[in-house]
Structure formats: C-alpha cells, structure tokens
Amino acid sequence: MNIPNRETMIQALTRAVCVVEFEKVNGDMRKMHCTLNEVLLPTIQEDKMQAGGFTPKKQVNEKILAVWDINADGWRSFRVDSIKNFEVTKADLPVINENAHTTVD
C-alpha cells in the first residue's frame, strides 16, 4: 500500500476519522481510529500561563504525528515512518478551521 506523506495525512485527519495501522516502538502492531477534526476533539481550556499571555514555542517533530484516538478518548501519537496502513473511514466531517492542525507535533 502507498502510505501518504505527513501533510496529506494531516489534511485527511482534519476532515475525517481515519484508521491508522502502525508498529509501536516496542514492536507491537496497533490499529487506531483517530482524527484531528475539531468537531470531534475535546474542548481545550486555557491554562493560567496562556491566560497571562505566555505561549510556549515547541519545535515540530516532523517524524511524529499526534492525533485524537476516538476509541481511547485521548491524545496518542505515532511515528510517521512506522505506518503500515492509512485509511479514511468517515469522510467529509464539518471543518471548523481548515488550517488548525498544520503544526501538530
């Protein structure tokens, strides 16, 4: 199977729920239903530092992709080079901000 690049995966995840099969660092295989669609993400509340104007600058690691795991109801990440299969399952979900996750790390 032809695995899409990181940016293409981010675009698909922003618009859909996808199934990602990947090899974990410990060698186990994992199949995860995940998304970056804001409609399905939890509400984010600003912490006290952000409310005070502090915005941390974190360098993006292009080798890792953080996603919302639909079944685990939490954030998970995987190495892009460990993906064995990437499939869009529920497409055309509403998109609040198309550029919201271009710097996900």
Keywords:
13% helix, five-stranded antiparallel sheet, disordered C terminus, 5 strands, globular, 105 residues, SH3 type barrels, alpha+beta
Task: Describe this structure in a few short sentences.
This protein has 105 residues and is an alpha+beta fold. 13% of the residues lie in helices and 32% in strands.
How would the blueprint of this fold be written?
Elements: H1 6-15, E1 17-23, E2 29-35, H2 48-51, E3 64-69, E4 74-79, E5 83-90
Antiparallel strand pairs: 1-2, 1-5, 2-3, 3-4
As a percent range, the share of helical residues equals 10-25%
- The neighbouring-strand order within the major sheet is 4-3-2-1-5
- Named at the architecture level, the CATH assignment of the domain at 6-42 and 60-90 is Roll
Output the structural class: alpha+beta
Radius of gyration: 14 Å
Gross geometry: globular
Under CATH, the topology of the domain at 6-42 and 60-90 can be stated as: SH3 type barrels
Strand residue content: 25-35%
Q: pLDDT below 50 for ≥5 consecutive residues: which ranges?
A: 98-105
Q: Report the biggest beta sheet as strand number plus sense, adding barrel if it closes.
A: 5 strands, antiparallel
Mean pLDDT: 81
Instruction: Count the beta strands.
Output: 5
Figure out the total of helices: 2
The rounded distance between the terminal residues' Cα atoms is 25 Å
